[in-house]
Amino acid sequence: MKRSILFILFFSILLLGACTTTAETPAAVSDAAPEVQSEEETEVMAAETVVAETVVAATAVPTATQPAPTEAPTIAPTPEPVETEEPVILGEIVSEDIVVEAADGLELAATFYAADGLENAPAILLLHMLGSNRTIWETVGLVDELTAKGYAVLALDMRGHGETGNAQDWVLAEDDIQRVWHYFVDRPEVDAGRTAVIGASIGSNMALIAAANEPTMRTAILLSPGLVYRGVSTEDRMPDYGERPLLIVASEDDYYSEDSAHKLAETAVGETQVQIYEKAGHGTDMFEPQPDLTPLILDWLATHLGN
Fold this sequence. Notes:
This protein has helices spanning 2-24, 39-60, 136-139, 142-148, 170-185, 202-213, 238-241, 255-267, 293-305, and strands at 93-101, 107-115, 121-127, 152-156, 190-200, 219-223, 228-229, 232-233, 246-251, 272-277.
């Protein structure tokens, strides 16, 4: 019993000593432990942390990809309106039979053709073949084609032909054509600065002579000319024709005219075009087998009369 009491007392003393040592020994303070902060400091640090996190978040979160800006479509400027000439509206084609008095009093018969109301237009004088008359130009369709293009046209019955009558006289005929020409270009329908003459066979010889006598004529078109027909020579008048453009048309089956065409072209000093067909005949007879003859004439006139 006494021994038990002593054992209990000894154990109690040991237990009391252990409790006293634990209370007196402060817990080790870690170097890594943060210092105790005040509530204000804590709030400031919290605010800074929020800002930092916001910055980090703003940096870390990718911005939604914006579509690449596209270039504004280029709008072509509205083109300036192109000024075009108003199309010429031609009136009905009318014809007028006229008479011009020759030096010897002979009445020279001719027909004037033009669109109704036409003014200041380019003008064409037509001279027929030997033994023919002024109506042939209607028959082959050239009058219609010329007037449809806005030309004023005058077809003449040369002395000794058609309604002019009397005897053929090519010396007097040269003066006849001059008189008819001046009547023609004095008409209000005609622009005297834009004129031409077209002849066939001996009419082409007379056409070249008329142009040689009238330097204001811009061009001449010769259908089957000859160096000499009935004493009417062409080669010696080429120097008077000068540098003006010249269109010469002939056919291989009309040997003399073909040869004359080439020789006249050799003596020409201005722009010269020679058109030789294979089998077309002579003079105004070439229109039927050669449908491209009329377009050739129209193109030539358009180029050199500006119509």
